[in-house]
Design goal:
Elements: H1 11-15, H2 20-23, H3 25-28, H4 33-53, H5 62-75, H6 83-96, H7 99-120, H8 124-198, H9 203-228, H10 236-249, E1 253-258, H11 260-267, H12 273-294, E2 298-306, E3 309-316, H13 327-338, E4 342-346, E5 351-358
Helix pairs in contact: 4-5, 5-6, 6-7, 6-8, 7-8, 8-9, 10-12, 12-13
Length: 359
């Protein structure tokens, strides 16, 4: 059971402070007991409606917004603090509707407040805050949600561009490999057949042909490496497996710790392409540095969730130190910071590299 959706922060709890203007009115304004009891009852009815509204989108949210307007209208003659219900209703318009629709409904709500206040001669302590704060807070929330929707659209567009670029890169690699290997293997087959035929009658020439086969194969290997240079990692799970194999091959004992939450996200997967790519590339670069420079005999790889961050730690028992960052570590830091993350390095006891990426 959750009061708020997972993508919602703590601020809805802070907004409840405005409800005190309504709930505590019986303490400051003389009113009959039944009106005080009604105020308490309305407060208790409001709370579940308030939290429910955060789960609603579109016209379904009108049920809750309409309930707020109704409560505010009913209590306006007896409780000046009832103006807060219109403010709450106006604030949810921006969350539930697009910008144009939200502004139209906000204008309708303000017109309703003015009309009711004129017909029933409500106190200025009610209609002035109701008009001013409903218009102000409602407009602010509409603009905030507009900005949020634009940012989401931009992020989706960026992910789509990255995805299309990845597809294009794979297609280029496939074409290059087809051309390189198709030509090279054909030449190797021809030269091998020629060497086979010459081996009995011209062994020296056959040996030359075999050396050519070796040279061509080496050239082909260089061309294949050039064709796939920059090809992205297959993912975090694959990179962890590769890291273990690399370290063990170098004679370095490995310990890998992954908390359950991150392990489930890796399997899902729940990381975006950018997040997974940065974490995987950071792990690859860090392990390469351990093998090449650390002179370590042990390395611990830790992947865990730390608040809003996915945290990767690579710790070895090597020589450590505080040498200047090389191009690999600098590039890693830039990729991490591009996503709003951070990189920390501690060389006091071996080397500890900590990478945090928001997820």
């Amino acid at each position: 059971m959750r009061l708020l959706p997972k993508d919602q922060d703590w601020t809805p709890y802070a907004y409840l402070i405005y409800l005190l203007f309504f709930a505590t009115a019986p303490l400051f304004y003389p009113m009959p007991v039944w009106q005080g009891a009604a105020t308490v009852a309305a407060t208790l009815v409001f709370l579940p409606l308030y939290f429910w509204a955060y789960w609603l989108r579109g016209y379904s949210a009108l049920v809750v917004i309409g309930a707020f307007v109704l409560i505010g209208s009913v209590f306006a003659p007896i409780n000046p603090g009832a103006s807060v219900f219109f403010v709450y209703g106006g604030s949810f318009l921006g969350k539930a509707f697009d910008t144009a629709t939200a502004y139209r409904m906000l204008a309708g709500m303000l017109a309703l407040i003015a009309l009711e206040s004129w017909i029933f001669q409500f106190s200025p302590y009610f209609w002035i805050p109701a008009l001013v704060f409903t218009a102000l807070i409602g407009s602010v929330i509409v603009q905030q949600m507009r900005g949020k929707r634009l940012n989401q659209a931009l992020v989706m567009a960026q992910d789509e561009v990255a995805h299309m670029a990845q597809i294009a890169e794979r297609e280029r690699i496939a074409r290059d490999l087809h051309d390189i290997l198709g030509h090279t293997l054909s030449v190797i087959i021809l030269k091998s057949e020629l060497a086979s035929r010459l081996s009995a009658t011209h062994p020296a020439r056959a040996a030359d042909e075999i050396r050519d086969v070796e040279r061509i194969a080496r050239d082909a290997l260089s061309q294949v490496r050039a064709a796939v240079r920059g090809y992205r990692s297959a993912g975090i799970a694959s990179e962890l497996k590769s890291a273990r194999e690399t370290l063990e091959t170098a004679g370095i004992r490995v310990e890998i710790q992954i908390d359950t939450q991150i392990e489930m996200q890796i399997d899902a997967p729940a990381f975006s392409a950018a997040q997974e790519g940065v974490i995987a590339l950071a792990l690859r670069e860090a392990v390469t540095n351990v093998v090449r420079h650390a002179q370590a005999t042990f390395c611990r790889l830790t992947l865990r969730r730390n608040g809003p961050y996915c945290e990767l730690e690579i710790q070895d028992n090597g020589r450590g130190g505080i040498a200047d960052e090389g191009s690999g570590l600098t590039g890693m830091r830039q990729r991490v910071e591009t996503l709003g993350g951070e990189l920390e390095r501690d060389g006091s006891h071996g080397t500890l590299l900590r990478i945090r990426v928001p997820v």
